[in-house]
Amino acid sequence: xxxxxxxxxxxxxxxxxxxxxxxxxxxxxxxxxxxxxxxxxxxxxxxxxxxxxxxxxxxxxxxxxxxxxxxxxxxxxxxxxxxxxxxxxxxxxxxxxxxxxxxxxxxxxxxxxxxxxxxxxxxxx
Length: 125
Fold this sequence. Notes:
The chain is an all-alpha fold. The protein is built from two helices and no strands. The chain has helices at about 1-15, 20-85.
């Protein structure tokens, strides 16, 4: 029992990582880690900047050109259909499951994204 008390007293008396010794030993390690983190951050930033400029920007341009070509083909097709039908698009078949409204929206029968050039005007019914 006396030995146990003596060991505890010695353990309490010895400094656990005194500030002077740990500050000197850890200061160089801290600054080295901080510099390594900054260097890594600079490398990764440069990597993602290159990925953005050399991959993302050209991919966006290619996608925009592809969409432009698809929309141009669609416009040509619509004009071809109009030319076949005396300048008007043919009427869309009136299927019972299309454009069904049980009750109107608060702003009327048409949806919030109604476009008179594309969508059927349900307020006329």
